[in-house]
Amino acid sequence: MSVAESVTAPAPAASEPRFAVAQLDEIPPTPCPCGQARRAFKEPWNTLASVHLTDIHVDSKLHYHKKMTEIYIVLEGEGHLEIDGQIVPLKPMTSVMIRPGCVHRAVGKLRIINVPMPPFDPADEFEV
Questions:
Q1: Nearest to 90 by CA among 102, 70, 114, 74
Q2: CA dihedral 86, 67, 8, 2 (to 10 degrees)
Q3: Is the pLDDT at 15 greater than 80, yes or no?
Q4: E strand or H helix that includes residue 4
Q5: Which of the ends of the chain has fewer CB neighbours closer than 10 A, N or C?
Q6: Is 63 within 8 Å of 126 (Cβ atoms)?
């Protein structure tokens, strides 16, 4: 097998697009344990990751996921992440990877990008 063959991705089915575009600030918000999330890339062919623009509320709830890994990227605000009993300070451009089973909640007036992998599944969200 040549190098080119080993890195070539399989082509999607003719009916599937090879890209998706989301205008995050135009997606209607959905309540979540953290506050309000604008969830993008929920296409049925997407099995890799989704992207959420999330506004953290002061009454966010401790929760965890059994299968999903999340990456939080802080865009605006300051606060902290309560994560497996520890406190991690948050400010713009802080990024945190949260593995499955890790109990967490963000605290403070924050706007974040959340990258769930695999894509977000509401059945995999458990409040503590």
A1: 74
A2: 80
A3: no
A4: helix 3-7
A5: N
A6: yes
DSSP 8-class letter at 14: T
CA distances from 2 to 9, 13, 124 (A): 14, 24, 40
Q: Is the pLDDT of residue 108 over 60?
A: yes
Token pair 């089973």: residue: 101
Interval 20-42 mean pLDDT: 96
Indicate if the alpha-carbon torsion angle 79, 58, 113, 45 is positive or negative. Answer: positive
Per-residue pLDDT tens over the stretch 68-86? 999 999 999 999 999 999 9
Structure tokens at 108: 């403070």
Q: What is the pTM of this model?
A: 0.86
Would you state the structure tokens that stand for residue 96, as one six-digit string? 């945190």
Residues 49, 31, 27, 103: what is their CA dihedral angle, to the nearest 10 degrees? -20
pLDDT score of 10: 55
